[in-house]
C-alpha cells in the first residue's frame, strides 16, 4: 500500500511571499497543508553566511510555529541552470560545492532530501558526442560523490526531476532509467526520481500516466499541475482548468499505487504569470487546488487504491 503526503513546492512564494512567516501561514492556514518543498530561491547557498544564518533562523521559527515539515530542498526558477553539466570545469566545481552546502542546509532544517534536474547541457555539448559523454559521465560521478555526503549528513536520498528536452536529461523513460541505474551503482544514499505530471515531452511518450506507471516505483516525489496533453502549463486545479485538463487525481493516485511506489510526496507546482488580472488569483487558485485534491486524498497516509488499480498491480 502506498503512503502519500500532499504538500506544495514553494516556487509560488519566491518573489510574492519571500518572508518565511508569510508563506508558512499561507500553507498551513489557507491551504491546509503541512509539508513543503523549500526552493533555493528562498534559501540560496551562494548568499553570504550571515544572510543564510538569518534566513535559516526565520524559516525554523516559522515552520515550528505553524507545524510544517520541510520535506525536501530543490532548485527553482532562478537556480535552474546548467549546474553539474556546465561547459566549464570551474563552474561545475562551483555547483558541486553549492549542492554540498545545499545538502547541509537540508539536514539542518530536518529535510529528507535535496535534488534538482540531473544537469543541463549546452547546445554545443549536446551536439558533440565526445563532449556529451564527458559531461554525462562527470555528472554521474559528481552526483555519486554528493550521495555519500548526503548519507553522512543523515539525508534519506537524492532526487532528480525528469525533464523536457534532450539537453535537460531524463526526457525519455529509457534515458531516465539509464541515469537512475548508473548513479545507483555506487551511491551512498538512493538516487530517486522526481516526476512531474506535465513532463511527458517525447513525441511518442506524451501520456503522463505512462511515466507514472513505468517510473513510479522508483519515484519519491511527484509535482502536480493541471495541464493539457503534450503541454506543461502548470495550471491550478480549478473548475475552469479541470474541465479541459487531463490530470485526474484518482487516476494519478491509482497509477502510482499500481506501480508499487512505497511513499510519494505529492507537491503542487502551480505557476501564475505576473499580470495585473492574474495576481489576485494566486492564493484562491492554490486554495481551490488543495481542496480539490483533498477530495481524493482526505488525509496524508496510506491510500486504498480502487479495485481497478489493485487489478493492474496483480497483472
Describe the model.
- Strands 1-2-3-4-5-6-7-8 form an 8-stranded parallel barrel, surrounded by 5 helices.
- It has helices at residues 20-30, 49-66, 89-108, 123-126, 129-153, 173-184, 208-215, 239-242, 249-259, 282-294, 307-314, and strands spanning 3-9, 35-39, 69-74, 113-117, 157-161, 191-196, 219-224, 263-268, 301-302.
- It has a single domain, classed as TIM Barrel.
- 43% of the residues lie in helices and 15% in strands.
- Helix 6 links the parallel strand 5 (157-161) and strand 6.
- With 315 residues, it is of the alpha/beta class.
- It is built from 11 helices and 9 strands.
SSE blueprint and pairings:
Blueprint: E1 3-9, H1 20-30, E2 35-39, H2 49-66, E3 69-74, H3 89-108, E4 113-117, H4 123-126, H5 129-153, E5 157-161, H6 173-184, E6 191-196, H7 208-215, E7 219-224, H8 239-242, H9 249-259, E8 263-268, H10 282-294, E9 301-302, H11 307-314
Parallel strand pairs: 1-2, 1-8, 2-3, 3-4, 4-5, 5-6, 6-7, 7-8
Antiparallel strand pairs: 1-9
| CATH topology description | TIM Barrel
Query: If you average the pLDDT, what whole number results?
Result: 95
How far apart the termini lie comes to: 16 Å
**Largest sheet entry:** 8 strands, parallel, barrel
**Strands, count:** 9
Give me the CATH superfamily: Divalent-metal-dependent TIM barrel enzymes
Radius of gyration over all CA atoms, rounded: 19 Å
Query: Strand content of the residues, in percent?
Result: 15-25%
Briefly note the structural class of the backbone. alpha/beta
Amino acid at each position: 500500500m502506498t503512503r502519500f503526503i500532499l504538500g506544495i513546492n514553494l516556487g509560488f512564494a519566491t518573489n510574492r511571499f519571500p518572508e518565511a512567516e508569510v508563506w508558512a501561514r499561507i500553507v498551513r492556514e489557507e491551504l491546509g497543508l503541512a509539508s513543503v518543498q523549500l526552493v533555493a530561491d528562498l534559501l540560496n547557498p551562494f548568499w553570504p553566511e550571515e544572510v543564510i544564518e538569518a534566513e535559516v533562523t526565520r524559516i525554523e521559527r516559522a515552520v515550528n510555529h505553524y507545524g510544517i515539515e520541510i520535506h525536501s530542498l530543490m532548485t527553482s526558477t532562478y537556480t535552474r541552470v546548467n549546474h553539474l553539466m556546465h561547459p566549464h570545469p570551474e563552474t561545475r566545481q562551483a555547483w558541486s560545492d553549492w549542492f554540498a552546502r545545499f545538502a547541509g542546509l537540508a539536514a539542518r532544517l530536518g529535510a529528507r532530501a535535496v535534488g534538482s534536474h540531473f544537469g543541463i547541457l549546452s547546445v554545443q555539448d549536446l551536439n558533440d558526442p565526445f563532449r556529451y559523454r564527458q559531461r554525462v559521465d562527470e555528472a554521474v560521478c559528481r552526483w555519486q560523490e554528493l550521495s555519500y555526503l548526503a548519507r553522512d549528513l543523515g539525508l534519506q536520498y537524492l532526487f532528480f526531476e525528469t525533464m523536457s528536452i534532450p539537453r535537460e536529461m531524463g526526457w525519455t523513460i529509457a534515458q531516465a532509467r539509464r541515469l537512475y541505474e548508473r548513479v545507483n551503482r555506487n551511491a551512498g544514499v538512493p538516487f530517486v526520481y522526481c516526476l512531474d505530471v506535465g513532463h511527458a515531452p517525447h513525441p511518442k511518450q506524451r501520456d503522463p500516466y505512462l511515466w507514472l506507471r513505468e517510473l513510479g516505483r522508483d519515484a519519491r516525489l511527484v509535482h502536480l499541475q493541471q495541464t493539457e496533453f503534450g503541454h506543461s502549463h502548470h495550471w491550478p486545479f480549478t473548475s475552469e482548468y479541470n474541465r479541459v485538463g487531463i490530470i485526474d487525481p484518482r487516476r494519478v493516485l491509482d497509477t502510482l499505487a499500481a506501480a508499487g511506489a512505497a511513499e510519494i510526496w505529492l507537491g503542487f507546482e502551480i505557476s501564475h504569470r505576473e499580470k495585473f488580472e492574474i495576481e489576485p488569483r494566486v492564493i484562491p487558485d492554490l486554495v481551490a487546488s488543495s481542496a480539490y485534491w483533498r477530495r481524493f486524498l482526505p488525509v496524508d497516509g496510506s491510500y486504498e487504491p480502487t479495485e481497478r488499480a489493485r487489478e493492474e498491480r496483480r497483472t
